[in-house]
Every structure is written in C-alpha cells, then in structure tokens.
Amino acid sequence: MCPLFRAALAQIAGADFRFARTAPKNRYRFFDCIDDMSYQPLLSNAAAPLTRQVEALDERGRHSIISIPAERPLTVYVDKRELTTLMTLGGNPEALTIGYLRNQRLIRALEEIVSVQVDWSVDAVAVRTRHGIADIEERTAKRVVTTGCGQGSVFGGLMDEVDSIALPHDARLRQSVLYRIVDTVRSQQSIYKQAGSVHGCALFSGTGELLYFIEDVGRHNAVDAISGRMWLDNVRGEDKIFYTTGRLTSEMVIKGAQMGIPFLLSRSGTTEMGHMVAERVGMSLLARCTGKHFLLLAGRDRIVFEPELFEGAGAGWQAAPASGPRYVGNDSSENIESTVNAGPK
Q1: Which among 20, 125, 229, 342 has the fewest CB atoms less than 10 Å away?
Q2: How many CB atoms lie within 10 A of CB 174?
Q3: Are 281 and 167 in contact (CB under 8 A)?
Q4: What is the maximum span of the chain, computed from C-alpha positions, in angstroms?
Q5: Residue 109: which CATH number?
Q6: pLDDT of the residue at 190
C-alpha cells in the first residue's frame, strides 16, 4: 500500500473522539432502530458531484456536451481493516457505508459505530467501531456475488437469519396510495433523467409521502444508502413502502426485510429466489408498477384493492374469492409467468 494512502487512513481512523454515552448492553434485530434519538456517530460530509460533462460525437459527426453519471471507488475500512470496495456515485457515502454494514449483518445497532469518515483524496472511508466486530474474519470469509448491477455481493449465506425476521401482519397498502407512489417516482427530478445509467430507490410513508430518494450506479448501493439514512434519522420500517427501479432479486428482498419494510415495489420484474424469499418472510411484493398496472406476487392480504378507481374505465375487474380481487387484462394470471420478467431490467 502507498505510504501516503496508509498515513491518510491512519489519520482518519485513529482520531480520538468523545461520546455522550456508552453502547447499550442489549443487541438489536436488523430492522430495529436505536432507542436514543440523540445519538449520532461522528460523520464526515463528503458528498461528491453526481455527474460530469464529456464531449460526444454523434452519428453525423456533430459535437455536443453531455452529462454522464459519476462512478468512483470507495474502499471501506473498519477499524483499520480493509473490508470491501464499493463503486458508487458518491452522493451519500456516509449513509451508504452505514447501510452496507447494517445490511451485511456486521453492525446490529447505530451506537456500535463511533465514526464514519470519507476521504475522496484516497477514495476510502474509515469506520471506527466502539468494540470492534466479533469474528469479522470468519463472518466475511464467504462472499456471494449477486445479480445486482455493478455486481453486488453479500457476506455469508443469503438465507442466514432470514427466518428470524418478522414483518408486521397488520400493515396495509391501499391501491390509491400505490398509484400515488408510482406517480411521484415518475415525476421525480433525477440523475437518470439527466444522464441515465443509474438506478433509484425510494422510501415512502404509509400514506405515500416521499421520505428518501437516492440514486446510485447499482440498486444495492441505493438501498444500502436508504438503510443507513433510516438509522441516522431513527426511522422505523414497519409502516413504510420501498420502491426500486431495479429487479426484485433475493438480495433486494432480504435487505428490505432486514429494514423491517413489509412492501417492496418495482417498475421491473422479479426473480424466482426473490419471490421465494418474499413469501418466506411474508413481504408484499409488487412488480411492473407502471401507470395503473402492477402485478401482486406475494403478500396479497396486505393490499387494499379499490375497484372504484376503475369505474368508467371499462370491463376488466374480477373478484377472486381465494386471493382477493385481481385485474384481468393483457397480463392476466394465465400469462403472468411470461410477463413478470419481461421488459427492461
């Protein structure tokens, strides 16, 4: 390692900071928030520019200046130990790092983190924990490369501790709220509209109010950044709705479940394992959410259908006694299998 790089990391990770209280004795489940809203680790404020301009030449030989998304490496060091390198836009590096550690099941409570300091001059973030991470070598020895764009990865078995996650059974999502969410995402000003080539994730309240909208080069980064932001803002997930522009893979479902969120929406499709995990943890999974259309694949009991939304729109509403109402059109139950993973990823 370059001596200057090592010295910079040592300076970031070895700083002496004071804190108001000690870590709690009890542990927290993945999606629990800290019980002390006043606690915050010491954070840098190192948001980086999200786009850059480059010169382009089109098919007619004409010059233009276009915006492209930034992409930069962020090497994560935990207590001076190199853990991984994330490829990111760099807009939310501190929240991304915290959410990554949370969703990798390496940190169970925000109070375990003393500081998160990002230094783009060395493309690194130094995390200092209060008592270290027990058995970190063993826990990070097994790595699973996921299907996430940007090639995400998770430590340990994908299904580790999934059965211990309990999502709330009484949470409900009204069809009109779902449509409000889809419309809000559609009208959101975004890096994607400006430069393309990114994925976005959003967290909504139970009434459809937008709480967070984060984009990154990979959807796994965007969900991790929202997870970190939720911890920092003491936001719980049991009455929230998560939206992603990317596929509903097992990684996305597991991370949503760990955040305690009972609803996962996407404008894209799902995968076999994503669907299986959703059913296993009791998550409501909705794919192909565009306009008035969606495909409810799991967790049907939580969705409140509102057939009056289609009054005057012609035939197409049909009651299904065993599983609740369904919309029968071009994407009826007979051809869901062929449409659920069709279209853009």
Answers
A1: 20
A2: 16
A3: yes
A4: 71
A5: 3.10.20.10
A6: 77
